[in-house]
Amino acid sequence: MKRATLDEATSNSRVESAIEATWFRNLITGLIIINAAILGILTYSEYLSPDTVFALEMMDRAITFAFAFEIGLKLIVYRQQFFKQGWNWFDFIVVGISLIPGSAAFSVLRALRVLRVLRLLHVVPMMRRITEALFKALPGMGAIVAVLALLTYVYAVMATNMYGSSNDPEVTQLFGDLPSSAFSLFQVMTMDGWRFEVVQKVVDDGHPYAPFFFLTFIFIASFAVLNLFIALIVEALAAEQKAATEELIDDLEEDVEHAEEERDEILKLIKAMREEIAELKNVVGNASKANP
């Protein structure tokens, strides 16, 4: 038997053909969705009857073994090539965590079994495309985070020097030291209660021009730098969509070329058949003339 490859367009065995089939992927997708619903329902276990909780846990365990069986099949078929894809590593680790016994020592790891729901990110093609685009945008995001961190540090130093020596304990809690100032500015950047929980307290402490300081930070950090994240993600998604479109166009061009080749072969065959028919007519005509 030929060694299997990660190319889903070809298969060298019945097992490989089965696990790469559309029905198999749809089955795994359905199990993931059902498992997500079960894990959500189990968070209300105190309101459910013991029999219902037991049944849901048995279903969860059965789905876990189904996922383990899927991973086992892929390991048998693909062998070492299974680990050449990052998504396969993700599946292997997530399912492995789910198989850890639910003792007290592993309670945190057992809580991570909900990570199995994240397998939808690569099982569903559209989700996979979006996720891969986000991963490709990570280097650019790192640069934006660095700019944002530098900007927050500069403003945090300024805020600590201007408002940190206050006699008001609330203001001191907000800007008494550099980490507190950075955290308060992060709240201002997210614009979550920034006016009354941060700015108004500073103004009431005797700093009437404080809103101008915080507004400049909001305009630079929130309206300018944070919007770069959105622009970067949109650009990455556009590039991923363009690549997918170009790949589809290449496939269509190959199909057209194959169709043209087949058409030329058919035309040649028709021409040869016409020539044979013409020769047969000549033979029949000569035979009829020879034997009137």
Tally of separate domains: 2
What is the CA-based Rg, rounded? Answer: 33 Å
Largest sheet: none
Share in helix? over 70%
Q: Helix/strand/pairing class, anyone?
A: mainly alpha
Overall strand count: 0
First-to-last CA distance: 66 Å
Shape: elongated
Look at the structure and give the CATH class of the largest domain. Mainly Alpha
Total number of helices = 12
The CATH architecture category of the largest domain equals Up-down Bundle
In short:
The chain has 2 domains: 14-123, Voltage-gated potassium channels. Chain C (Four Helix Bundle (Hemerythrin (Met), subunit A)), CATH 1.20.120.350; 139-237, Helix Hairpins.
How would you sum up this structure, described in words?
With 292 residues, this protein is mainly alpha-helical. The protein has two domains: 14-123, Four Helix Bundle (Hemerythrin (Met), subunit A), CATH 1.20.120.350; 139-237, Helix Hairpins (Orthogonal Bundle), CATH 1.10.287.70. Helices cover 78% and strands 0% of the residues. The protein is built from twelve helices and no strands. The chain has helices at residues 14-19, 22-42, 50-78, 86-98, 107-111, 120-123, 125-136, 138-163, 169-175, 178-190, 194-204, 210-290. Helix 2 (22-42) runs antiparallel to helix 3, helix 8 packs across helix 10 and helix 8 (138-163) packs antiparallel against helix 12. The model is unreliable at 103-107 (pLDDT under 50).
